[in-house]
Every structure is written in structure tokens, then in C-alpha cells.
Design a protein that fits this description.
This protein has 190 residues and is of the alpha/beta class. Helix content is 59%, strand content 14%. It binds adenosine-5'-triphosphate and magnesium ion.
Length: 190
């Protein structure tokens, strides 16, 4: 089983690199952000709750997101592994992931930290907002999301270092160069 956590600030390219990883290694993909946006689009109860947080640049409460994660994992059949994109974002979420995987006799193989300078993140997200119209990709909300990232999510870097799973990846430059560095790291744990 190849279980990859793809990690990084908003706009660090998690979704883009995840698609390439899925195509190469044939594993399943869970993007919690995509799941939440689909719920919002579908007008579900969960979507209504999620929208309130996302529009404010805040995280969805841990219990809700952990529940989504467990359900999505159980929907995969004969899986070769999973890439976790946008999850975990807090230490309780990382602990929950460890537990959910352990219950299935598995563990995280590697955590890839896509490291991108802050000015580059701002530029990418503002551009994405203009092109896709994603409601949380506006300057004010982006700034809030970056603060949330630093306060609640970045502590996971040390958490995964202590867990022996951490791998730094230079997250800016050519897409192909970033992907090559990812593959080199993944091939060592596969
Ligand atoms: P990227 O551009 O690298 O894909 P992102 O931060 O722009 O990352 P998403 O991962 O799509 O975008 O997340 C969008 C929003 O969904 C977050 O700002 C947050 O409100 C909510 N969300 C997504 N995943 C989680 C999670 N694991 N815990 C709590 N909230 C989450
Ligand atoms: Mg994404």
C-alpha cells in the first residue's frame, strides 16, 4: 500500500501534483477541498455548514472532516493506496489519520511538503480566483487562509518529522521538475 500525504500551504500545487501522482502510481485520490466543494454545489446539509467556514477562510471542524475521510476511504475497493490531498490540516486530523490507517493495518508511507514562497502563493491564488471564480480565492480570504495555515497546519511539519515520514519538496519552478523530485522520493518508499 502506498499512502501519500501531500502537504503545503493554499496554492502550493497539491491538486496539480496529486493528479500526476495518481496517473503514475494508480492510487486513489482524496481531496477534502474537492469533496467539500461538491457538497456545497449539491446544496447538502454538510455543504451549507462547510460554506460558512470556507468563505471565512477557516477550517471545517475536525469531527466533520474526519468523518468524511473515513467514509471516502471505505468507498475505495481493491485500492493500491491513497493520496491524501488537503488532509490532514491539524494535529488531531493527523492523529485520526494514523488511527484510521492502523485499524486497516496500514500507515502513511511518506509526507510530501510542497514548499513555495509566500509571494508566489498569493500570485497563484489571485490568478486562480480570476480564472475559476473560486469564492475563497480573493485577496482578503487568501490572507486569512495563510494565517490559518501558519497557525494550525504548519505544526504538522514537525509532527511528521517526528513520525519519520517527512520529505521536503521544492514546490516552485517547472511542474515537471517538481514532479521528478516527488517521484524520486516516492520510489524510495514504494
Ligand atoms: P491547494 O490550492 O494546494 O489545493 P487550498 O487550500 O487552496 O489548497 P483546498 O484544499 O481545496 O484548497 O481547501 C479549501 C478549503 O476547504 C479550506 O480553506 C478549508 O476551509 C476547507 N478544508 C479542506 N480540507 C480541510 C481539512 N482537512 N480540514 C478542515 N478544513 C478543510
Ligand atoms: Mg486543492
Amino acid at each position: 500500500m502506498l499512502n501519500i500525504v501531500i502537504f503545503g500551504a493554499p496554492g502550493s500545487g497539491k491538486g496539480t501534483q496529486s493528479e500526476k501522482i495518481v496517473a503514475k502510481y494508480g492510487i486513489n485520490h482524496i481531496s477534502t477541498g474537492d469533496v467539500l466543494r461538491a457538497e456545497i454545489k449539491g446544496g447538502t446539509e454538510l455543504g451549507k455548514i462547510a460554506k460558512g467556514y470556507i468563505d471565512q477562510g477557516q477550517l471545517i471542524p475536525d469531527e466533520l472532516i474526519i468523518d468524511i475521510l473515513a467514509k471516502t476511504l471505505d468507498s475505495f475497493q481493491e485500492s493500491k493506496g491513497v493520496i491524501f490531498d488537503g488532509f490532514p490540516r491539524t494535529i488531531p486530523q493527523a492523529e485520526a489519520l494514523k488511527k484510521v490507517l492502523a485499524e486497516r493495518g496500514q500507515e502513511v508511507s511518506i509526507m510530501l511538503d510542497l514548499d513555495v514562497p509566500e509571494e508566489e502563493l498569493m500570485t497563484r491564488l489571485i490568478k486562480r480566483g480570476q480564472e475559476s471564480g473560486r469564492a475563497d480565492d480573493n485577496e482578503e480570504t487568501i490572507k486569512k487562509r495563510l494565517v490559518v495555515y501558519h497557525n494550525q497546519t504548519a505544526p504538522l511539519i514537525d509532527w511528521y518529522k517526528q513520525d519519520g515520514k517527512y520529505q521536503h519538496i521544492k514546490g516552485f519552478g517547472l511542474l515537471e521538475d517538481i514532479f521528478a523530485e516527488i517521484c524520486e522520493a516516492v520510489d524510495k518508499v514504494k
